[in-house]
């Protein structure tokens, strides 16, 4: 029996009492992935990206482990909810226009001490001030550095379009703006190198493309390390009380941790290891989060139909944004239909061994987005479900 076949047998036994659709997290794999992130971070704390987990119980589980500290959140409403729930260090990774949230933040000493907001434009400070409604708490601020690699005088750009703050001079001027502004305190710098951390460099069947990605990423890491170091030195001259410099992502943990200027690493997807993180030469994780759909039809030889499963992930539309049939091995989509909203035909010889009601296990393309489809995650240890915990959705919360 292969390792994957053994996993399928375990998952089927563990969930035999549960009707599909059902989502699980294999805790042995989850914990092993957490250990690997800590190993790669080489002594620097890992801040957990909540958008890649979206389950309060699992955030608490990983933060109880040595090597992890703090949460990186994705909306202000989520940040405030986590802080009210007892999370004491929450970095909001994206700018917000949530006026009600800013009013709440500025009026509550506990929230203001726990939550750090992201800015990259003076207009964002204006919005916070206009939202205060009398609240006088000092708002903790982090600046985001644009990590994109610019070539040929900026005519070629590699990387996500995020912050407008690219050069040391631009970031330092923004730091001075915060320092001059009553009601705010600059405490951190963040830089997410998504073109390194979020792009696999070993694309199956594409050796030339894979080599090009590795060359690009090596150049991007060198350029960013030099520029990030210069930014941090310049900003510390303005704000010597700077508490943290956050960088990285699951795919670049060990590279970013090697930079002296970086004090902490961000990662989250590496806990669940969705399918987009299969194609890296620098690490190998274990799939920990899966979902199962039930077989509801057997249309013919080599074909079964499962209920639903059309759960595309965010990003540029493409086949890599789709879930993949994972267990049993050897199933594939019908190219004329793909995964459907209500039903999904699957082709391949393993279909002939599946009966009505059997489970087919899938892996989602991006980590936490799976939790937007399920109210609960069943936590599997060995061949038993040992706990069932709510996702954000299961707690009645959909932040985006």
Task: Give your account of this protein's structure.
The chain is α/β, with parallel strands linked by helices and 400 residues long. Helices cover 32% and strands 24% of the residues. The chain has twelve helices and 19 strands. Strands 1, 12, 13, 14, 15, 16, 17, 18 and 19 form a nine-stranded mixed β-sheet that branches. An eight-stranded parallel beta barrel has the order 2-3-4-5-6-9-10-11, surrounded by five helices. Strand 10, helix 11 and strand 11 form a beta-alpha-beta unit. Helix 5 crosses helix 7 and helix 8 (168-180) runs parallel beside helix 10 (207-238). The model has no long low-confidence stretch (mean pLDDT 94).
**Structural class assignment:** alpha/beta
- First-last Cα distance: 42 Å
Determine the fraction of residues in helical runs and give it as a percent range.
25-40%
- Give the rounded overall mean pLDDT: 94
Largest sheet: 9 strands, mixed
Anisotropy-based shape: globular
What's the β-strand tally? 19
- Which strand-content bin applies to the residues? 15-25%
Round the Cα radius of gyration to an integer and report it: 22 Å
Number of helices: 12
